[in-house]
Amino acid sequence: MSYLTHLECSLTGEHYPCDQIHGLSAAGRPLLARYDLAAIRAQVERSVFAGRQDGFWAYQELLPIQDWSSVPRLGEIKTPLIPLLNLHGEQLMVKDEGRLPTGSFKSRGLALAVARARELGINKLAMPTNGNAGAALSAYATRAGMQSIVVCPADTPSINIAETRMQGGQVELLDGYIDDCGKRVRELVANDGWFDFSTLKEPYRLEGKKTMGLELAEQFDWRLPAVILYPTGGGTGLIGMWKAFQELTELGWLEQQQLPRMVAVQATGCAPIVKAFQAGKAEAERWENAQTLAAGIRVPMAVGDRLMLQTLRESGGTAVAVSETEIVTAWQAIAQREGLLMCPEGAATYAAYLKLLAQDWIGEDEQAVLFNCATGLKYPLPA
Ligand SMILES: Cc1ncc(COP(=O)(O)O)c(C=O)c1O
C-alpha cells in the first residue's frame, strides 16, 4: 500500500492533490511527494525491505505507486557497493548503477515516473535528454504500452540515440544543449498533446531516484557513509537522496544523527552549481559554451538548482569541478587497478575524491561512496 498523501511546492509549501496530473507548482517550482510518515512509523518495520526480492521497488511504502499490478518491470535490482580495495580499501566504495536495466541509474526515476503516469492516465511522454534518460524512458514507456519522444543534442553519444530508437522511442536531434532541447519539448507539449516529462517538472522521477538513498541506508545497516560524491547534471539524484535521508530521519530508522556530506561533482567545462556554491548564491546562472566528455553532466542550467544548493549547504557538503584530464586519469586508474569499468561521469567523482582527500576535506578513515551512474560499456573508451 502507498502512504502518499499529497504533493507540496518546494518553494512555497503549498499543497496539491496527488490523484491529479501535475507538472511544476503555481510558483514554477518542483513539486515534492509527501507521505504519512507517522503511519509508516507506526505500521512498518525497516527490516521488511530485506526480505522482498523486488529490487528497488522493495521500498513500496515510501513510493507513490497505488496499483502494483500495472508497474512496468524489466528486472530491477538493488545495485551493489564495490569497495576500491586495491586503491583505498573498504573506506571508498562505488555504488555501481551501471547494472540496472538500460545500463544506467535513469531506470530508477523513469520506471517510477512511467508507472505513475500510467496510473494517472497519461499516454504520450516527451523529454529532453543527454542520452541515458532517453534510453530509460523509451524502454519503460514501451514496456508500459505508452508513446515516448526525446529531444537531445546532436552530439549525444550515438549508442544512446540508437538504443532509444531500438526500444521504440522517437528521437529528435537538435543543434544545442539540453536546455535548448527542453524548449523544443515545450513546443511539442503545447502543439501535439505530449506530457512534459523533463527532470523535476513532474513529481515522481525524484521518488525513483530517492531509492538510491534508501538502498544505501539499508546496505550500510542504517548507518550512512560520511560522504557521498555524485556526478551532478540536473541533480535529481542528489536531491532525491537527501529527501530519502530526511524521510528516514523522520521515521527514526537511522542509527546516527549525522547525515552524509553531499558533494556535487561537475566538469570544469560545465560547472554552474560549483560556481554558484562557491559564490554563496541561492540560484545558479546558465553556463555558456558547456563542454565535457562526460555527457550526462553537461547541463548548463537546471530547474533544481535551488534544491541542489540547499542540499549541499544543509548537509555540510561541497561542490567540486574536475578537468577532462583528471576525469580520464581517474577513469583509467579504476579500470586498471580495480578491473571496474566506470562511466566518465562516475570517474569524475573519483577525481573529486582525490582532490578532497588531498585538501583533508575528506579523511582517509572516513567512509565515502562514489556514484557510478552508468555502465562504461556505453561510452567510447580512451585510445
Ligand atoms: C551517466 C550519468 N551520470 C550523471 C548524470 C547526472 O544525473 P542528474 O541529472 O541526476 O544530476 C547523468 C544524467 O544524464 C548521467 O547519464
Notable characteristics:
Rossmann fold; alpha/beta; single chain; globular; binds pyridoxal-5'-phosphate; 11 helices; 4-stranded parallel β-sheet
Number of domains: 3
Residues in helix, %: 25-40%
CATH architectural type of the largest domain? 3-Layer(aba) Sandwich
Tell how many strands the DSSP assignment holds.
13
* Radius of gyration computed on alpha carbons: 19 Å
Return the structural class: alpha/beta
For the largest beta sheet, what order do the strands appear in spatially? Answer: 4-5-13-10-11-12
Strand content: 15-25%
- Described by the principal axes of the CA atoms, the overall outline is globular
The average pLDDT value, as a whole number, equals: 96
CATH fold type of the largest domain: Rossmann fold
The tally of helices reads: 11
Largest sheet: 6 strands, mixed
Cofactors and ligands present? pyridoxal-5'-phosphate
Uncertain spans, ≥5 residues at pLDDT below 50? none
CATH class of the largest domain: Alpha Beta
How would you summarize what this structure contains?
With 383 residues, the protein is α/β, with parallel strands linked by helices.
Describe this structure in words.
With 383 residues, this protein is an alpha/beta fold. The chain has three domains: 4-70; 81-104 and 204-378, Rossmann fold (3-Layer(aba) Sandwich); 106-196, Rossmann fold, CATH 3.40.50.1100. Helices cover 35% and strands 16% of the residues. The protein contains eleven helices and 13 strands. The protein has helices at residues 37-43, 106-119, 132-143, 158-166, 178-192, 205-219, 236-251, 272-278, 305-314, 324-338, 344-358, and strands spanning 4-9, 15-16, 31-35, 81-83, 92-96, 124-128, 147-153, 170-174, 195-196, 227-231, 261-267, 318-322, 368-372. α3 links the parallel β6 (124-128) and β7 (147-153). The longest helix is centred in the middle third of the chain and has 16 residues, at 236-251. It is globular, with a radius of gyration of 19 Å. The N and C termini lie far apart (51 Å). Bound molecules: pyridoxal-5'-phosphate (PLP). Pyridoxal-5'-phosphate binds next to α3 and α7.
